[in-house]
Amino acid sequence: MARAALQVFDEVVAGIGLRARAGQRLMAEQVAQTFSEADLGKPPEDEDGPIEALEPQRSIAVIQAGTGVGKSLAYSVPAIALALARNTRVMISTATVALQEQLVAKDLPALANSLPQPFRFALAKGRGRYVCKLKLDRWAQGADAGDGDAAWDAEDDLFAEEARPTSAGRSLSLAQEQVERQTFYQDLQRQLDRGRWDGDRDQLEQPPEGAWWAAVAAEGSSCTARHCPAYDQCSYYAARKSLIGAQVIVVNHDLLLSSLGSRMLPELDNCLLVLDEAHHLPGIALDQFASSMDLSRLKWIDKLASQAVRTGGQLAVSEVAGIPQIAARLRQLMQELARLVMHHHGSALRGEDTPAWGGRRAAPAGTGQASQSGRYRVPRGQLHPELIEPLAQLSLQAQEFLDALRAVSQALKAEIKAQPDEARRLSQQYAQLGTLAPRLEAVASTTQLLLQEPDEGTAPSAKWFTLVTQGDYLVLQAHASPTLPGATLRHQLWNAVRGAVLTSATLTSLGRFDFFLKEVGLFGDPCTLALEVQSPFDFARQGRLVLVDDLPDPKEVTAYNAAMVQALLRDLKRVEHGALVLFTSRAQLRLAEESLPDELREIVLAQTALPRWQLLSRHRERVAAGQPSVIFGMQSFGEGLDLPGQLCEDLFITKLPFAPPDDPVGESRAEWLRQVGRDPFTELVVPATAIRLAQWVGRAIRTEEDEAHVTCYDRRLTRTSYGQRLLQGLPPFTRVTPAELARGG
């Protein structure tokens, strides 16, 4: 079976006229072998049921494919060929929606024309990226519709106690904001009704305000699915229909992890799974399984209780009788918890000029931004004893409230089915409840994580509190997150997977796969194989690495940044075409931008000033016109940015990309490692930085014709032992000194 899939790969490569690449074929061979070995579906049965002695065979490959290997073709062709032969499906997961759309719009259509056997493919996105027509119609009618059931009333305004959702830098009155917001919804409604828009947020010309979009997003908590009167016109379910019969489904890591345990995507034990950009998976897993709750803005509790009692009373749901008492107790407990947090940790959370807890604070006019913030991380995950009982009671009350809400939602669905003439009104009531329910679910999940005690020998959850100023309010929030992504993924994901390929250009760290395998939960897994496929590029000929080692120690932040900026400005003067400068902080970027002389200011495009698509478009236009153009970017520009040829002939790295020192999850993990006698810098910080640095350097050489200079101003690369190890993980560029470069070397 693997041999047949590899033969299909060879025929496709020859058929589309590509030059054979040894690394690409090696990768395709491993993908074919891995997927052919995996046992899919239910285990075999005899007359007494499943044969337990025959454990299904798992097969997982971790493949680092250097830039230029052509990994998309190397994994997609054998995977699709095997899926068709085995009558199953391929699920390709990426880190970003952008790569999802590239696969669906470009790569897979080309393959569909090249493979001997036809196949269907589809793009799967989360509900939140589609509009809910029922919500949109109601918001578009506004408060003057005259029909109390036709327009959202005051209780539906989720922004009443929060900062107004306006674009940065604008100051609007409440009346102005309401007019703009309704105009926005009416425009969306017209586009949708006239067929000019398919309801997909990503297809809008301009990204919408986040909070405005959230009010009309097709979230599962507010959806009655087939019971909804707008079901036949639903953008989300129209997109879902394209998944039926598709042999290839393209998702992203967020959706993959958030849908575990649901029927939204194919069952993982009965499909072939490809994880592209797999180096993002551990971080996305931590974000996905973290939770937080707001302890200060609590009006939603009364709104939710009022709506639940009103709706449940109409439907004679007995469980709603206790909701007022449950809601009152929930609010009381959250207020008490907030008081205790401020009593015990207030000095760490607030500055000297911040009013005592419960007060309001006016933010600078028109900013709409947090003007002050503080954070307290719980050492070793051990909460103050006085917080335990309120949290336990809060968890109990939240669960009782959720149970009552489920009874109301079930009754609503039954009533919608029984009374189709009332479906619109009832579905709107369901949506109102569902809009607020996620806040209650967040309380339940956050309290459970905060109360979680680790098993012996395992890392505790990261737990922390934040206090920020938003608009006119002080906002206190509680947060909790798993600490080790590998343990979470092993339990949540890999237990269900039979056949998988994980790939990226940067999976090794310091020359080994160990760090990534531990982060992703596959270290020591007997069914996992790791393979490194070298890039076909001649890095020694195509690239020059310039290491500047005469600047101050980066730990002396002020002195280092000043000297680095001066060196950078000197080097920018030699840029002839396209260049990319990567900064490690917004403050660092701002200092460089403020120091630009007039002649350089004209050619610099800063990430902080323009939307990404607009900045890149302007950069390409300048370079195409023969003008120099320099991009100032931060972390997000260090990965996934493709600037071939003259678009990036010079890459400048202002400082080694260590993770931010104030990350509470990283702090908790480092604390635990020290507690058990291990060194977090060697075991965690350096390997993670090695992968990030390799990603940054990977922006320089994108094709076999590219030539580029990579300049790093951080002397730790040459003066420390870990710096030497970081260098070993980079492509074998020819090293030149700044003096040699100045002489044209």
Helicity range of the residues?
Answer: 40-55%
CATH fourth-tier homologous superfamily of the largest domain:
P-loop containing nucleotide triphosphate hydrolases
Mean pLDDT over the full residue set: 88
Strand content bin = 5-15%
Calculate Rg over CA atoms: 28 Å
SSE blueprint:
Layout: H1 2-15, H2 22-37, E1 45-46, E2 49-50, E3 59-65, H3 71-86, E4 89-94, H4 97-112, E5 121-123, H5 133-141, H6 174-193, H7 210-214, H8 235-241, E6 248-252, H9 253-258, E7 271-275, H10 281-289, E8 291-294, H11 299-314, H12 323-349, E9 373-377, H13 385-418, H14 423-451, E10 462-470, E11 473-481, H15 485-494, E12 499-504, H16 514-520, E13 528-533, H17 539-542, E14 543-547, H18 557-572, E15 578-582, H19 586-594, H20 598-601, E16 604-606, H21 612-624, E17 629-633, E18 650-653, H22 664-675, H23 680-697, E19 708-712, H24 716-719, H25 721-728, E20 734-736, H26 738-742
Parallel strand pairs: 3-12, 3-13, 4-6, 4-7, 5-6, 7-12, 14-19, 14-20, 15-17, 15-18, 16-17, 18-19
Antiparallel strand pairs: 1-2, 8-11, 9-10, 10-11
